[in-house]
Every structure is written in structure tokens, then in C-alpha cells.
């Protein structure tokens, strides 16, 4: 199966470099999605541009496809299921949850000069970054791509309730499956509360397992793709 890989905020497609060969070793074709505004130098990209890039990758895939989104990009993966429910065989949500219709995509941090730069490690102290050493933190921060305001403040639009029939895997890195289930049960993730089939997988890592646990992450995605 083709597995599309969508990085979260501040990440370009190279964030999946260690996951791709691990997925291919499991017999899958891994396709990192280059998002407009996150690696191509564009500061004017919008959420719509990123959705279009993801859908183009879905349309170019061979047969049914798994779409894996990381962190904020869990919403991009869910938007793909909404727009292509007949093509998306499974959605994998890595370290995050999808926003609902009418919500802002990722307006989490201050925008400066039309972009939302990486805010430093303060907001991510604790379980999020516990498995990143000082060198890894420096490398991440130096490579972080400021996210265009049109992406961060874009409004999510969901239209097709057939998305709720697409199976979902929630990969739980810095939080546990039990915590994720509790958030869904409490109504904190309305989109998943309506999903017909949701599975949870534990992963002992921080918020960026593609960097710190690529083989383990690939194993979880590969197993879900075959399920």
C-alpha cells in the first residue's frame, strides 16, 4: 500500500527520511508529501494550498492509500479522508488529533511578519521533547521552517460524513492510549467520537517519533496498513 507521510508544523518532507526505508522494508511505498510553505520558500501559502498538495498525492497513489499525519497535520490527513473517502483506506494520526469544521488549523503561537516561527523549546518541555538531546534540539530549531500565516490561521472545512467510515489509527507517543481514549470519550475530539473504527497504538517516544523512533513508527504504520 502507498503510505503518504505529512509532517506537522515547521517540518519539511525530509523529516521522514529515516521512516521511508523502514516502511519500504515492510513492503510499502512511502511518499513524504512536500507541503507548500514548509520547505519551498513560500511565505504566502495557505491551508488550501496544503490540502491541494495532499489530495494531489492521494490522486497519484496506486489504489487505496493510507494517509499519515503528524501533530497539526493530523487535520490534513483527516481532510484527505473527507475529500477522498473512497480512496483513503486508513488514516494514521501521529501525536495529534483532527480539528473540526470551522476551527482554525493551527493558530497556536505568535505570528511575526506573516509567518509563525518555531517558538523555541519552552512550550515543549517535558514528555514532548524528553527524548531529544541538546544536539537534536539545536538541529531541529535550526532547520525549522516558519509556517505561513495563511496556513496557521486557515479555517478547516469538512463536508463529507463518509469520512467517519474511514478506519483510524491513533499513534500515541508523548501521551498514552488510555489518555487519548479519555479525551475522545470526554468530547474533546468530536471528529474521532463519531468515527466508526478507531484503534490506538502506544509508542515510547516524544512528540517527534519520526526523528527518534523511526523504525518503531514505521512498524506501527506498516502493521496498520495490513490490518
Automatic annotation (TrEMBL):
**Domain of life per record:** Bacteria
| GO molecular function terms attached to this record | catalytic activity
Q: Which Gene3D superfamilies match?
A: alpha/beta hydrolase
Domain named AB hydrolase-1: which ranges? 3-218
PANTHER family given for it?
EPOXIDE HYDROLASE
Q: What is this protein called?
A: Pimeloyl-ACP methyl ester carboxylesterase
Q: Which SUPFAM superfamilies match?
A: alpha/beta-Hydrolases
**What organism is recorded for this protein?**
Nonomuraea fuscirosea
Q: What residue range is the signal peptide?
A: none
Amino acid at each position: 500500500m502507498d503510505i503518504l507521510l505529512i509532517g506537522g508544523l515547521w517540518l519539511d518532507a525530509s523529516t521522514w527520511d529515516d521512516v521511508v526505508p523502514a516502511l519500504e522494508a515492510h513492503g510499502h511505498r512511502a511518499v513524504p508529501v512536500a507541503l507548500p510553505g514548509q520547505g519551498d520558500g513560500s511565505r504566502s501559502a495557505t491551508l488550501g494550498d496544503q490540502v491541494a498538495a495532499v489530495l494531489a498525492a492521494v490522486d497519484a497513489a496506486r489504489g487505496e492509500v493510507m494517509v499519515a499525519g503528524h501533530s497539526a497535520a493530523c487535520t490534513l490527513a483527516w481532510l484527505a479522508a473527507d475529500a477522498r473517502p473512497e480512496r483513503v483506506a486508513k488514516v494514521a494520526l501521529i501525536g495529534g488529533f483532527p480539528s473540526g469544521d470551522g476551527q482554525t488549523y493551527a493558530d497556536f503561537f505568535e505570528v511575526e511578519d506573516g509567518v509563525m516561527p518555531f517558538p523555541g523549546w519552552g512550550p515543549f518541555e517535558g514528555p514532548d521533547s524528553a527524548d531529544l538531546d541538546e544536539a537534536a534540539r539545536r538541529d531541529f530549531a535550526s532547520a525549522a521552517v516558519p509556517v505561513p500565516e495563511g496556513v496557521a490561521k486557515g479555517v478547516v472545512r469538512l463536508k463529507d460524513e463518509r469520512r467517519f467510515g474511514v478506519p483510524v489509527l491513533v499513534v500515541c507517543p508523548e501521551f498514552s492510549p488510555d489518555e487519548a481514549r479519555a479525551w475522545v470519550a470526554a468530547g474533546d475530539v468530536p471528529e474521532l467520537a463519531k468515527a466508526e473504527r478507531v484503534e490506538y497504538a502506544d509508542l515510547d517516544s516524544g512528540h517527534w517519533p519520526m526523528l527518534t523512533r523511526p523504525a518503531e513508527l514505521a512498524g506501527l504504520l506498516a502493521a496498520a496498513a495490513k490490518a
